[in-house]
Amino acid sequence: MPKRTEAGLPVLRMRPIPKGRRFEAEALEEVRALLGATPRRRDLLIEHLHRIQDRYGHLSDRHLLALAHEMGLAAAEVYEVATFYHHFDVVKDGAAPPPALTIRVCDSIACEMAGGAALLSTLRDRLGDRVRVIAAPCIGRCERAPAAFVGHHVVGPATAESVERAVLEERTTADVPEYRTLAGYRDAGGYGELASCARGERSPEDVMESLERSGLKGLGGAGFPAARKWGFVRAEPGPRAVVVNADEGEPGTFKDRHLMETDPHRMLEGALIAAWAVEASTIYIYLRDEYPHCRAVMEDALAALRADPPAPLPEIVLRRGAGAYICGEETALIESLEGQRGEPRLRPPFPAQRGVFGRPTLVHNVETLYWVPAILARGADWFAGTGRDGHPGQRFYSVSGRVRRPGVYLAPNGVTVRELIDDYAGGMLDGHRFYGYLPGGASGGILPASLGDIPLDFGGELGEYGCFVGSGAVVVLSDRDSARAAALNVMRFFAHESCGKCTPCRVGTAKSVALMEVDDWDRALLDELGAAMADASICGLGQAAPNVVRRAMEHFPEEFEA
Ligand SMILES: Cc1cc2nc3c(=O)[nH]c(=O)nc-3n(C[C@H](O)[C@H](O)[C@H](O)COP(=O)(O)O)c2cc1C
Ligand code: SF4
Predict the structure, then answer these.
(1) CA of 219 to the centre of ligand 1 (A)
(2) Do the beta carbons of residue 435 and residue 371 sit within 8 Å?
(3) Residues ≥6 apart with Cβ < 8 Å to 401
(4) CA–CA distance from 198 to each of 152, 227, 229 (Å)?
């Protein structure tokens, strides 16, 4: 006789047998009801975990065991994935599940500068007995700092009162914005370039030649010339894939969100042209979980596109991240798309050679693809000409911190931070004097105001000062801030987000935080540790993590004098 649950259902053994753990038939029925007819493929594991988390508010042992059985996976495989991602709450046998509502208060740089830490502690005091109040790494609402999620609803600039009001009024769902629909986009000539490619009026070589001449570089952070990457992918045997990196987790970055929530079809057209050019049969869009409103927009936009396609469409798959900054790194992203922990792969092979499901894969940032249709429509010279001398092209900068009007601004490559502050963001906040800035989010280093006239672009002068523009996230500090505090905030972020795969990063970030939490920094040791991390970490997270710390010590020596 099989053992029975309290409800009288048999407790069945798992397949494959997970070291004596059992699951309940009742849990299996619940999981099956949630998954419905969706395939039980391994790559859908994270999607399936989301379904359970969304329905029950957490992932219990009983559901994880049942899911493992249902997908034909070992329990350990399901656990190792579920416990990797911050948005999954794995609750062990007998432990209390989290309260139904979670408030996530952003503790990254712009929000901390705007009082996020005080907000977090006030909210814990006021609401902690009713809801769960936790700190969260950058939620991509830096222009609304301090920002917080109440469920999926964003409050910002947030006060304890405005958050409490949202809780009381049960405003917990995402606000879906008005955006340029398919009809609006087409009225403005949208999808014309894709249609012309599909009709054979352009060849992939022409398109790549235009991109090359335009100077378009990857705007996810690395700045690699776009056309060259397309060429690498095309040179590999098919089937091929395109991946849209919409994971946007770099603290201070929110421009991709802006593009997706206002004009999703433009990025989609860019992705479709890329897929046509490299002859990819599938496009994957990997969207960070902190942008549920963008998910609604994207689902809507994709439905409209499929109902009335301007050209034959490849398979387009929208995937949901689960709260892990490292999944923005392209190989970690690919692992995540395959239903694994988001741990970066060793390179080579590069994604262009062997990417998602082993296919040659073109990975691009949302904004890189966003520019493709305009470059084809208006010409490579137009795009190149929008930049400054020696800095072809333009891009969207996310500007946050102590400026009057934080936001997303379109500006030429080579613009300076001083211009971004004065000519775009309305100047410094009243009573604040420009003190320093992070030119490229958490990864790109930190510079003093005296170096505020350096052109912001990949390489060049910025590189000579040990900094980089990366995703174009410019965080402005004033005389009320310090480079030390900024560096500590950033290092805590990296320690939290390190995937742990390699020792220099896993241990180096944690050790750096400990060294920076004391009054008297051991600067020589921090620098040595930073050099080891930069040299020996597997991926860009560990390599760039010490950047702000080392640049703070280099460019703000007065902060370290006794
Ligand atoms: C730790 C880390 C996080 C990253 N996060 C993102 C991200 O959120 N979005 C993005 O587009 N690229 C991100 N990147 C860069 C990607 O690895 C990759 O270079 C990019 O998606 C390629 O697209 P692009 O050529 O259009 O820039 C990240 C890189 C690292 C090392
Ligand atoms: S550098 Fe950090 S994030 Fe990258 S693989 Fe190593 S431990 Fe993971």
Answers:
(1) 8
(2) no
(3) 109, 110, 113, 437, 474, 475, 476, 477, 478, 481
(4) 39, 19, 21
Q: Report pLDDT digits (tens) over 209-261.
A: 999 999 999 999 999 999 999 999 999 999 999 999 999 999 999 999 999 99
Rounded to whole angstroms, how far apart are CA atoms 424 and 403? Answer: 10
What pLDDT does 12 receive? 44
Task: State in Å: Cα 255 to ligand 1 middle.
Answer: 13
Whether 544 is in the pocket of ligand 2, judged by its Cβ within 6 Å, is: no
The response to whether residue 506 sits with its C-beta less than 6 Å from ligand 2 reads yes
As a whole number of angstroms, the distance between CA 369 and CA 80 comes to 33
Q: Scan for tokens 């649950």, then name that residue.
A: 5
Asked if residue 537 has its Cβ within 6 Å of ligand 2, the reply is: yes
Whole-number Å distance, alpha carbon 528 to ligand 2 midpoint, is 18
Q: How far apart are CA 229 and CA 252, in angstroms?
A: 26
For tokens 């190792």, the residue is: 80
Beta bridge partners of 448: 436
Question: If we measure between CA atoms, which residue out of 282, 205, 291, 283 comes closest to residue 246?
Answer: 291
How does pLDDT run across 472-483, given as a tens digit for each residue?
Answer: 999 999 999 999
**Atom 24 in ligand 1: residue holding the nearest Cα:** 218
Which of 397, 336, 416 is CA-nearest to residue 82? 336
547 C-alpha vs ligand 2 centroid, how far in Å?
15
C-alpha to C-alpha distance for 129 and 133, rounded to whole angstroms: 9
Considering only CA atoms, which residue is closest to atom 6 of ligand 2? 502
**Residues whose CB falls within 8 Å of the CB of residue 459, separated by 6 or more in sequence, listed in order:** 223, 468
Q: Which ligand is nearest to the CA of 222?
A: 1
Number of separate helices (H) and strands (E) present in the chain: 24, 17
pTM, two decimal places: 0.96
Q: What is the C-alpha separation between 52 and 30, in angstroms, rounded?
A: 9
